């Protein structure tokens, strides 16, 4: 088991290095520092002196990979690649184009994102699995057919409809909760309860249908028929045996949600004016703040790889065969 964990951990290192290299190429080779300067200064009446001054102010005036003018290790460290890409591995995100510390912004904004994403993740997972189990329990009945049609309708509706409709109904008509903003402490509950509710409801359609498919596949396997032949009740078969053996595909599907726990929902946070990492990324894109965008891309990829690693490790607890591999 230790060898399995070590092997999976080592796999993550070249993936992160590859993502970092690709990000560097996209931000500094395809889109050069001169291009960044022109975007910020404006395409018209931009002089070479202004471009040079902007690059100096933002630390883009150094060579990309090798500094021939330096000596010793400075040939590699006094470069754009080391300053803007390598330092990301030690969580040194540098400063945004307006001079703010990106690391400090991330530490402040991750909590509003977690306040929304974590309840949506946990409650949504519990609700969708419960709904799927209930549908499978009533499989091949009219209720099953009606439930499947309802799930398809729910997953066909745009997420914007849930957001705008929820804001109008609960905020404008019923005046139960505010439709935008955020506050710290216990006051945050009234600001996050509507986004959490919308996040859970909007995920029931796709999540319920996905888990229903998984459970139905398990229901057709030999161990289920053997349990039924022994006289074990359908409820015990479903909730004790089928649910346990369906954990691997469930865990595999859960991993894609892990980055959003910290990164936040881009659309949700923007519509509700929540100062999380999702809205932080959107604002950076609008402002063409490449330093922030680059940091968020790397952070998102690192969280995704971490999620994959945690998923692989969780397999060892639900599948004994993995522990022996």
Question: What can you see in these coordinates?
Answer:
The protein has 325 residues and is mainly alpha-helical. It has two domains: 89 residues, no CATH class; 222 residues, MetI-like fold. The protein has 17 helices and no strands. Helix 8 packs antiparallel against helix 9. The model has no long low-confidence stretch (mean pLDDT 84).
Summarize the helices and strands and which ones pair or pack.
Blueprint: H1 2-30, H2 33-41, H3 48-58, H4 74-77, H5 80-84, H6 102-137, H7 142-156, H8 159-173, H9 189-219, H10 222-229, H11 234-245, H12 247-254, H13 258-263, H14 266-271, H15 277-286, H16 290-318, H17 320-323
Helix pairs in contact: 1-16, 2-3, 6-9, 7-9, 8-9, 12-16, 15-16
Descriptive keywords:
about 325 residues, mainly alpha, MetI-like fold, 2 domains, about 0% strand
In a few lines, what is going on in this structure?
The chain has about 325 residues and is an all-alpha fold.
Q: Strand portion, in percent?
A: under 5%
Specify the helix fraction band: over 70%
Quick one: biggest sheet?
Answer: none
Number of helices: 17
Oligomerization category of the chains in this entry: single chain
- Give the N-to-C terminal Cα separation: 7 Å
* Count of discrete domains: 2
Mean pLDDT: 84
Q: Which outline best applies?
A: globular
Derived from helix and strand composition plus strand pairing, the structural class reads mainly alpha
Number of strands: 0
